[in-house]
Amino acid sequence: MHQQLPKEIDPFRFAHNGRELEGEIELTSLSRLKPSLFNDAGTVKVKMRFDIDQIGTPYMQGQFVTELSMTCERCMGELLYPITIETLLGLVKHERLVSKLSEQYEPWIIDESEFVNPADVVEDELILALPLVPKHDFDCLPKEVWQSGDEEVGEKPEKQASPFAVLSALKSKK
Ligand SMILES: [Zn+2]
């Protein structure tokens, strides 16, 4: 059994209290990520540490670890893509405050009045980390495809001399 993350948190309060979260998210519950997956079994291991830095910026330091099953665009087979995300997000209450964040932070914009589901930020980060064109890092096409390709190349010189061969073949049929 694994620990579920809470569905609603107030990240600013978490930062104020220096809280930590640890748990797992089922991949099948990430509806925006799901269409990119070959198989949505599995989980993301999530660690979040909330705190306030020396100049008063609330932040979340996160580590998200998973292995996604994607479709290889060459062979259309399953491709296992391990992802480890280390992220440092500065909490801001409005988009216009993003420019005030120190450089080491990526912004996490949270509407003042709303609780957030921590799984949403995990899903955002995973989507950003997906490969543009998932492909196996080896020749993954079935052997026959490569072999027939080689034969075509090898046959070309013979084909140039083939009209006579074709003619004689036709003649011999009569
Ligand atoms: Zn492949």
DSSP, total strands: 5
Q: What molecules are bound to this protein? A: zinc ion
Number of domains: 2
Q: Pairing-aware structural class of the strands and helices?
A: alpha+beta
Q: What is the H/E order?
A: HEEEEEHHH
Beta-strand content estimate: 25-35%
pLDDT averaged residue by residue: 86
Q: What is the makeup of the main sheet?
A: 5 strands, mixed
Helix proportion: 25-40%
The separation of the N and C termini measures 77 Å
Total of DSSP H or I helical runs spanning 4+ residues: 4
| Oligomer state of the chains in this structure | single chain
Radius of gyration: 27 Å
Output the strand order for the largest sheet. 1-2-3-4-5
| Low-pLDDT residue spans | 149-159
Taken from the alpha-carbon principal axes, the silhouette is: elongated
